[in-house]
């Protein structure tokens, strides 16, 4: 007699290779195909699920592509004015010190209009997590030059490339805040390969766990692409990122447990 296998047996957890975290809202992502925001969202929510802190987590996202996070993250979220997420996170964390609080910001927000809020929150040593997605351009508003746009990199407002003599140098926010006494953990990661995704998830987990120590800001930069703003397909954008973004914004830990990591 032929043995039949029902669907419930096939669906047993030990047979699963991958499971989408239920903490992501079950709607299609509205980001451009190939964008790193979706993967960054997944890493954050997997960490929150694994730590069992969904009911105790509050996210803050301001203007830009990051504002779309409200549509996808099944946690308490609060919108901030452009650049003001660190100020709002400061208020929330001080009112509810036992909550897990994080900001989710792009480079046009965190390193431009929000530079002062970023610097002062880090210098004060507030006890929340900052997640900084850096794609070197204003993605949502038309591909304009951002503070993190590379030298000679083209954008809609620097069509011949960024001229540092006229437009200044790119701002390396992660290196800058590393030297502030209020930062406890500072790292730069990416999400363009499976190996890098795992490293980024580990960094986000450490950043969230550090909040329990109450020793200052944990800052996770994610260097990502913007294939629509860069006028490339996703494969080309990832290759361009590896060849151009990573040499200028090298990946790895810059500060761990309050100590600056010495580069060999």
Structural account:
- This protein is of the alpha/beta class and 264 residues long.
- The protein has one domain (31-258): Thiamin diphosphate (ThDP)-binding fold, Pyr/PP domains (Rossmann fold, 3-Layer(aba) Sandwich), CATH 3.40.50.
- Helix content is 35%, strand content 18%.
- The chain has ten helices and ten strands.
- The chain has helices at 7-10, 37-51, 85-95, 107-113, 115-124, 164-167, 173-178, 194-210, 227-230, 234-248, and strands at residues 57-61, 76-79, 100-106, 129-134, 137-138, 144-145, 183-190, 217-223, 252-256, 259-260.
- The strands form two sheets. Strands 2-1-3-4-8-7-9-10 form an eight-stranded mixed beta sheet, with helices on both faces.
- Strand 7 (183-190), helix 8 and strand 8 form a beta-alpha-beta unit.
- Helix 2 (37-51) crosses helix 8 and helix 4 crosses helix 5 (115-124).
- It is globular.
- The N and C termini lie far apart (67 Å).
